[in-house]
């Protein structure tokens, strides 16, 4: 889930729409609302954040450290104009990258992927037994053959592989895929997506790599 912080609704709405086209959850906040939310949000909600995009707002140098006090996601500042003084000030405030608008959401996702590989040692691809799972938008492969998946199922698979060996709750998966404040989608839809994904994996692999326990959640074995 990507979080966009900007005083202008036009900016937050535009980027949310762009991420949605890529099948990626995003939500937008005005600065004060972001401060209140991230200060009080539950850990599962905060853990779903993939990056914080910091746009135009007053006193924005205070927000990078606020975000990092709750999560390890990168903070990317988006500037309307080139300004060396402004860029240096933002890096001093704790941002991980500074970009110039307009910037496509695909480039933002690529930059976040590069940050994760550098700091979290995350690869673009993971091989597990006969499976090869990509984290750059490509469908997974089983024994060298591409397994075509709807983008929500692919995102769920990627999220579960990222967290393999750990139990994840339905709410965590929902927040990562749909966003915390997506009131138009019922959280129960996650169960439907996972059921379809498990059936496809079972058909191709001959076994189910996703373990499910009531009240405990799901785990990619």
Automatic annotation (TrEMBL):
One of its GO terms (biological process) is regulation of DNA-templated transcription. Residues 123-221 form the OmpR/PhoB-type domain. The keyword Oxidoreductase does not apply. GO terms for cellular component: cytosol; protein-DNA complex. Keywords: DNA-binding, Transcription, Transcription regulation. Residues 123-221 bind DNA. Gene3D superfamilies: 3.40.50.2300, Winged helix-like DNA-binding domain superfamily/Winged helix DNA-binding domain (1.10.10.10). It comes from the Bacteria. Residues 1-116 form the Response regulatory domain. InterPro entries: CheY-like_superfamily, OmpR/PhoB-type_DNA-bd, Sig_transdc_resp-reg_C-effctor, Sig_transdc_resp-reg_receiver, WalR-like, WH-like_DNA-bd_sf. Pfam families: Trans_reg_C (PF00486). PROSITE patterns: OMPR_PHOB, RESPONSE_REGULATORY. One of its GO terms (molecular function) is phosphorelay response regulator activity. This is DNA-binding response regulator, OmpR family, contains REC and winged-helix (WHTH) domain. It comes from Saliniramus fredricksonii.
